[in-house]
Amino acid sequence: MYASYQWEGKEIKTTDYARHKISTDKVFDSFGKGHIYKVEYTDKELPKLTQYFYLYPGKEYILTDFTVEAKEEIRSGRMAPVNVDSISGFLQAGDNRALFVPFDNDKWIRYQSHPLGFDTLVSYEVTAIFNNESRNGLVVGSVEHDNWKTGISIGKGDRDNIGSLVCYGA
Prior knowledge:
mainly beta, 2 domains, 6-stranded antiparallel sheet, 4-stranded antiparallel sheet, 14 strands, 0% helix, globular
């Protein structure tokens, strides 16, 4: 898993950076009491990127976000804290699906559950990738979206697994 953002017409990934430093601290916020893991990425040619992972004991979720900083003003039209190029083996064989959530709740486009094996699926704000029989799976989405519209893009896989997953704000 890596983070990425658009900058000067290029996609920049955390994997593009020359160096990284990891630190940990405690966090107490509206989600609870937990630990924050901070990864600072630096490179002579790129803005500084700081990625955060928030883990809370007893909770079945992880939160993540990142910031990009430079001496001069920078702009990005797309930031993606979650990028996974391929996922396999997390769903059991069977009726595996992905949830499509429409961009707007205007009664014209409906929520839909699609069997895996599609080329691409873009869901807005949240999606679930799950086994329809066991109901086990993964929920991915945005927690806050005051300034950005968010989406989750799922790439081609097969009947039992998705290919790629990108959770982004634009």
